[in-house]
Write a structure and sequence with these properties.
Keywords: Coiled coil. The chain is mainly α. It has four helices and no strands. It has one domain (2-134). Helix 3 packs antiparallel against helix 4 (112-134).
């Protein structure tokens, strides 16, 4: 045998063969797990990005609520009534976004597409509302 030239015996060859088979199995397992994690990472990445967008809009609403609360301190009765209505509308929009954020956080991979569609629709509705107010 060719291995005997290098001092290897048949027993050594069998051990090396088993080691190679084990190494190949480990590598295949790593590749398989990596491929599965890539798919999972895609939806988790989308979930993270959507959560960030929602959080940023909630922060914007909080900033507007702070402005309204400051304006209320010096507002006349008529202006205060209008500001209170505006404040309630903003609180409703914030509540909708918080619900969407909670649903996104609780989403499973299996339900992700439906949850994402609903949360994005809610997000877009709130963004449209805010644009209409400021535009």
């Amino acid at each position: 045998m060719a291995f005997e030239l290098f001092g290897a015996t048949n027993k050594t060859f069998k051990i090396m063969k088993k080691a190679n088979i084990t190494l190949i199995a480990v590598l295949l397992s790593i590749i398989f797990v990596s491929c599965n994690n890539t798919n999972q990472s895609d939806w988790e990445q989308e979930r993270m990005e959507l959560t960030d967008r929602i959080d940023n809009t909630i922060d914007d609403i909080d900033d507007e609520l702070t402005e309204i609360n400051n304006d209320l301190k010096d507002a006349s009765e008529d202006v205060a009534e209008s500001l209170e209505e505006e404040k309630e509308e903003l609180l409703d929009q914030k509540s909708a976004l918080e619900e969407a954020r909670d649903n996104v956080a609780d989403a499973t991979e299996e339900a992700w597409e439906d949850t994402k569609d609903w949360a994005e629709e809610t997000y877009n509705d709130v963004e449209d509302f805010l644009s209409g107010r400021n535009g």
